[in-house]
Each structure stands twice: as C-alpha cells, then as structure tokens.
Design a protein that fits this description.
The chain has about 475 residues and is mainly beta. It is built from five helices and 32 strands.
C-alpha cells in the first residue's frame, strides 16, 4: 500500500531494522573526468536498484547511468569539467552542480540559466573547478521528484596537497519512502509534506544501499565525506566512542573541531568532511546511530574492526586543509538586507498588508514565503539586486516552526552570527541549516554575475514557494 501523509514511528524505525539485511557497504563507481578529450556522459533515465534485500527485490528508480548514486566524478582543483548530460526521462531535466561556483550559464536552473533539457535531448556543461572539496550534482527541474527518485551523485574536487589519511570515503546519505512491496511511494509533492517538514522516508541508505557494516582497522585514519542527498531528512550522527573532527563544511575548509555535543548534524544538501581515527580494539564493533529526531533513533551502520591492527596509536598528521580562493567580505562596510522566511503549518505570519498578500497566495496553493512572496516557478523578479564585487550581509529570520537548509547558488558565504551571537568558526558554507525561530547572519562578496537561485533545500518547501532570485549585477546582467 502506498504511504500517505506523515510517516509513523514504526515506519521511520523500519530503516534501522532493515540494516541487518545487507553485508559490507559497496564502493561507488568513480569516473575521472577527462579534462582534455571527450566529455564525460551522464544519462538520466528510469532504472532499477537493489535498495533493499530479499524478499523485496529491485526498486524502480531514476538514476544517472542506471545507478544510485550516479558515478562519483573526481577531478583536481583547477581542472576543466566537461559533462554531456543526456535526458532519457519522459520529462525535462537539468543538472545543477551544487556548491561549485560555476558561471551562471552552467548553473543548471531551468528557464533561469538555461532552457531545460528536452526529452531525448542533451546539454554540454563545461566549467572550471575553482575550489577543492566535496560537492554533488542533481536536477533542478521538479527536483522534489527527480532527486527523490534517485537522480544525484557526488562530485569530488581533490586538493593539490590533500591531508594525509589511510582512506578517503564518500557516504551519500538518503532516505526513501517505500511501500510494503518495496517500491517508492508515488506521493511526491504532497500537500501535507509541503506544509510540514517535507518528504521524510522510511528507509535510509548509504550510497544507495542499506549497509550492515563497514570493515575498518584499529589505528586507521579515514577522511569521511558526508553528503546529505535526502529531500528533507536531517541527520544527527553519533559515532559512539569515536571522536570525529570536522575539517570542511560544504566543501570549504574550516578550523578542525569537534561537532557540538559530539553529534554530526547535516541538513539536506549539506556536506561535511570528517577526519575519523579508528581507536577501537581489533574485532570490536562501533555503531553509528542517527539520533537527530527524538524518540526515533536508529542504527545507521556498524564499523567492524578487522582482527589485525594497522597501527597502535593515532597518527599525528595535520588535519588542516589548504584554503580555497574565496573573496573575504568586508563585514564593517557590507550592505545589510533583512530576509524573513514565513509560512507552513504552525508558523508566524506577517502583519498588515503582507499578511493579506500571503493569505491570498496560500489560497492559490503557495505555502512558503521569502519576504512575503512565494515563488511559482524559476522565473521571477529578483528579491535583491547586488552590485558586482560588493560585500553583503543577509540577516535571515526563520519565523516558521520548521528547520530550513537555505542554499545560495553561485557563491559561498561566511556564517557570522546565530541569534545575535558571533559564530566560533565563521565557517564558509553554501547551505546553512536554520532551526525554527532562529536568526542567522551570512556574509559574502557578490563576485559571480548573474541571476542566482536562493531557496530552502527541503525540496517540497522550495516547490511550494520558498525560493527567490538574487541578482548580481555587472552592468550587463539581463533585465
């Protein structure tokens, strides 16, 4: 039976119970981009995947090159990336290169930066990779369904001088709303999901599989690249007795530090690079648990130690990543803009004329608002127009009862304050998770000309209005 409405506690916990059914986590297919010859080809098409084991069989999905996730694309910092996207779907699509500071024409937003790729058509994406780090790719056309059905993959840009580790692993985290017969529930874009916390699934995967355990060795050091590809689920990972260290956020290096309260929190579309020292004894098992939702904790995966130790003590190698070439905003001289997010169930509403306008838009099916305006598509008047090269501060106010991962295309920004208090690490991000009723300040240099999407990355919220355009005006930007 197709799942409708909110997912029950039993349904959410099914993810944990299902973990015992599959053995070791399989590595993803890696595609090294040919920077001088033919472009890498990525074909979006319907297919099947073994998300769950017997007796469920295969699940109908949409994937790049027939797999979920799509191929892990690896390049080196400064390389030219050339990808020919082929549309084998029965609807239009695009590819957005999430977190990469591409030229505007390569950003993959339908009708705003390019015409959507028609059925049977193709589009050549070509851009340089200015920043090293962990990024990903996914459609921006009907993303609540296309991403939700499996169209995404990792994009790793390697540093010229990376930190030393024993293994470099990528975990693409996702959840799937599955029916009793092991197929995807077909209620994409439901009104209930849009008005509440988005489409939360009942089956959680790493790299398209429900893993039981991952083999590790005592004394080993991992670089663990986490990518949250879920439509709406926030993960809060507890690594037990291990002590993960965050070394990059959204691809950008940060001063190495422990996560708050030891829990690694990662919202939709966000990435975190961890250094993880495996300090358990040989033959031990360390459980990684997702504890973000109170009362709905489940076992994500076990780290199973080999009988043979790699080394007796933790290596003393540096965890500091080299910085990327980001322009530093002049916070003292920056222009300030207030941005208010409203809407959804149980949220605050604006007063006066703004409230009347929002109520009218809600009657038309729009449920989320930025400064009182709900997007009805990718074409709209700019929310803000910023001079090219100027320093900017967005004072963002989440007046809703729900968290929102807010993503700005084409730029990285410093998170400089939360609820009026300076942040400790002033981390660079492109997607910042805002808690309900939280105020967050971000600062950046508007140095990439064009019209850029600015939206919530809970994909049902985006589709229901929480999306706007930020114009960076070079004097030649379209009007």
């Amino acid at each position: 039976m197709t799942s409708q409405g909110p997912i029950s506690r039993r349904g959410l916990l099914r993810a944990g119970a299902a973990l015992a059914s599959v053995s070791l986590l399989s590595p993803m297919r890696t595609a090294w981009a040919d920077t001088s010859g033919s472009p890498l080809r990525l074909r979006a098409a319907a297919g099947t995947a073994g998300l769950r084991s017997a007796p469920y069989g295969s699940t109908d999905i949409w994937g790049y090159d027939g797999i979920v996730p799509g191929p892990e694309i690896r390049v080196r910092q400064g390389d030219r990336i050339r990808v020919m996207a082929e549309n084998g779907l029965d609807e239009e699509t695009t590819i957005h290169w999430h977190g990469i500071r591409t030229p505007n024409a390569m950003d993959g937003v339908p009708h705003l930066t390019q015409a959507p790729i028609p059925v049977g058509g193709e589009f050549l994406y070509a851009f340089d990779a200015p920043d090293a780090g962990t990024f990903w790719y996914h459609p921006h056309q009907r993303s609540f369904e296309q991403v939700g059905r499996g169209l995404y993959g990792p994009l790793i840009v390697e540093e010229a001088n990376p930190i030393r580790v024993d293994r470099d692993l990528t975990w693409m985290l996702d959840d799937w709303r599955m029916t009793e017969d092991g197929q995807l529930a077909d209620d994409f874009g439901s009104r209930h999901d849009a008005m509440h916390g988005g489409r939360i699934g009942n089956t959680v995967t790493i790299n398209g599989k429900i893993p039981e355990r991952i083999a590790v060795r005592s004394g080993e050091r991992l670089r663990l690249r986490l990518i949250n590809a879920a439509n709406a689920r926030i993960f809060g990972l507890d690594f037990g007795d291990l002590e993960p260290v965050i070394v990059a956020m959204d691809g950008q290096p940060v001063a190495p530090h422990a996560p708050r309260d030891g829990i690694v929190v990662i919202g939709p579309a966000m990435r975190l690079d961890l250094v993880l020292d495996l300090t358990g004894r040989p033959d031990a098992v360390e459980t990684v648990t997702d504890v973000f939702y109170d009362g709905l904790e489940y076992r994500l995966v076990d780290l199973a130690y080999d009988p043979d130790m790699l080394r007796a003590s933790v290596p003393d190698w540096s965890m500091v990543l080299p910085p990327n070439p980001l322009a530093e905003p002049d916070v003292a001289a920056a222009a300030r803009h207030r941005i208010v997010f409203n809407g959804g169930m149980m949220g605050q509403m604006m007063m006066g004329d703004a409230m009347g306008s929002m109520m009218g838009q809600m009657r038309q099916g729009n449920m989320w608002f930025i400064n009182g305006v709900a997007a009805t598509g990718h074409i709209m008047d700019p929310l803000l127009t910023l001079p090219l090269g100027s320093s900017q501060i967005f004072e963002m106010d989440n007046r809703t009862a729900w968290p929102h991962p807010i993503h700005l295309h084409g730029h990285s920004f410093r998170v400089i304050a939360r609820n009026g208090q300076p942040t400790r690490h002033r981390e660079w991000q492109d997607t910042v998770l805002m808690a309900p009723e939280e105020r967050v300040e971000i600062a950046f240099v508007a140095d990439n000309p064009g019209d850029w999407m600015f939206h919530c990355h809970i994909l049902e919220h985006q589709a229901a209005g929480m999306m706007g355009v930020i114009r960076v005006d070079s004097g030649t930007t379209k009007t």
